[in-house]
Structure formats: structure tokens, C-alpha cells
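Sorry to interrupt, but I need a hand with the structure work. Go ahead and set the record down below:
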Amino acid sequence: RSQGLISVAHILPNLALLFLRPPAVGPPWWLATDGIGLTILFTSPGLLFAWRADWSDAAVRAATLTGLLLLIPNLLYYGGGYIQIGFRYLLDSWPFFLVAVASATRRGMPNGWKAFISFGVAVLMR
């Protein structure tokens, strides 16, 4: 916060929170969060399925670009939120990224991905 509420100095810590923040291990073995946040790889693994989207579709490209543009100011903000499970400020971009995920699911979803997404749901249900 000493860098200001909005600063490019906050981009790397916020990206680390978004993509790298590991869970804590709570008793006796369950994954837990400390309230600061948790990588989207644990909380929203289905978002990664968007790589299979139909990128030739202009609506998919426009929605994804809009989501990325909305994410930029949130990455510049000094904190990732407070008392949360995932990256709180991804929620502003989430509806736009879901367009790409929906496009990807049109061709079906392999069982491995379904298991991966079920894992994310289990983490959030904790």
C-alpha cells in the first residue's frame, strides 16, 4: 500500500495470487485457505478449458479481450481482497471468460476435465 492504491508495482503480486498462491494444508490433511486467496488453478480449473474455444469466432475473441481489459485495473490495485478463497477481482472478468469456456464445451468435455472441475468445486465447498 506504500506504493499507492493503484500502481504497476502491484501487478506481479496480484498475478502471483491469481496463478501461483498455493493452499494451506489444514488438519488432518484437507486443503485450506488462509483468507488471502488461492490460485484459480484450484478454485476455477474449468477456466483453463477455454484454450479449446473456437478462437475463429469473433464473439469469443471479443469477450475474452473484454475480460482481459477488465482485469488490468484489478491487477493494478494494491490488494487481492480480504477473507476470500480465490482471486476476488477475477469476478469482474469471469462472465466474459465464460464465453470462451462455453465455446470450448460445444465440442464436448473429456472425463479428465470433468474430474479436474469437480476438484475445483470440492475446494470451494470446503
